[in-house]
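Appendix C reproduces, verbatim, an entry submitted by the partner laboratory led by Prof. M.T., so that reviewers can inspect both the input and the predicted structure.
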Amino acid sequence: MPKRQAPPEVSEPSKLRRPLGEAEAILDKQIERGEAILNGLRPGALPPEARRWHDENAAILERLFTGPEGTEYDSCILVTGLSVAMSDYDEDETSWHRDRLEWLRSLRGRLSRAALLDAVREARAPSTLVANGGYAGLCPDPVRGGVCSL
């Protein structure tokens, strides 16, 4: 008789540890620095400034987020599919830097959505339910005339 496999673990969604505006400003600054570094890169090994930028990003993200967004940055280029061989990074590390910069941009683009989801999760707590037991009015929904019912 085959053994039953345990269901895959589902990690809790990440939450911001800082206010949204502060997190946006911090990420914007790091993205701007990363772009400046990228514009000055030459093929080959990364300069120390790029490596410091990466280390700072890892530390900043651990402090900004709980969950995966706080820890996935270090491995963001390792799970890009079989088409990217690690030997590509051995000879020219500019793509290594570019991939991390793109990951930060993607995270920055998801920030507002994550903050909205956090607000909805908090609003779903029993202490904040509206009297009729619904969630109407917690977030804008243009399809429903500015009100969503979750």
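Residues 20-144 form one domain. Additional entries are available on request from the coordinating office.
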